[in-house]
């Protein structure tokens, strides 16, 4: 158990360091980095690398955006195994639906409660 906490911190921290380096050393926008991380998670999941990483690091691998991508890949693989080629389309949506629904619900709730202000240059 204590080792998983250490690996969780190290893996999650490594993902953060990579993102910070991408922000500091490239002209990539945060939106492009977000897409890169989700896509990397899908690729790692499709290659079978994400699951062992998740078992090693727990929340350090599942909470960041790369975990969202890994979840999408896992849903696609399970759906293809169960339903064939149509699972390529259906699996991603079913695997990601709970996370997307929660993000929409909490985002909308926060927008009702708090008053947003435009960012000033």
Helical fraction equals: over 70%
What structural category characterises the helix and strand content? Answer: mainly alpha
Order of helices and strands: HHHHHH
Number of H/I helices? 6
Residue-averaged pLDDT: 83
Give a count of the beta strands, DSSP E runs of length 2 or more: 0
Shape: globular
Give the end-to-end Cα distance, rounded to a whole number of Å: 47 Å
The main pleated sheet reads as: none
Strand content: under 5%
Stretches with pLDDT under 50, minimum 5 residues:
none
- Any idea what the radius of gyration is? 17 Å
In short:
This protein is mainly α and 121 residues long.
Descriptive overview:
There is one protein chain. The chain has 6 helices and no strands. It is mainly α.
Topology:
Blueprint: H1 2-25, H2 30-46, H3 50-57, H4 59-62, H5 65-83, H6 87-113
Helix pairs in contact: 2-5, 5-6
């Amino acid at each position: 158990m204590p080792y998983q906490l250490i690996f969780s911190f190290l893996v999650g921290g490594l993902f953060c360091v990579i993102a910070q380096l991408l922000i500091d050393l490239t002209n990539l926008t945060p939106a492009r980095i977000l897409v890169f991380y989700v896509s990397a998670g899908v690729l790692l999941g499709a290659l079978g690398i994400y699951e062992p990483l998740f078992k090693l690091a727990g929340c350090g691998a599942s909470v960041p955006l790369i975990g969202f991508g890994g979840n999408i890949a896992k849903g696609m693989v399970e759906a293809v195994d169960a339903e064939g080629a149509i699972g390529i389309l259906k699996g991603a949506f079913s695997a990601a639906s709970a996370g997307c629904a929660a993000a929409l619900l909490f985002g909308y709730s926060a927008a009702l409660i708090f008053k947003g202000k435009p960012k000033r240059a």
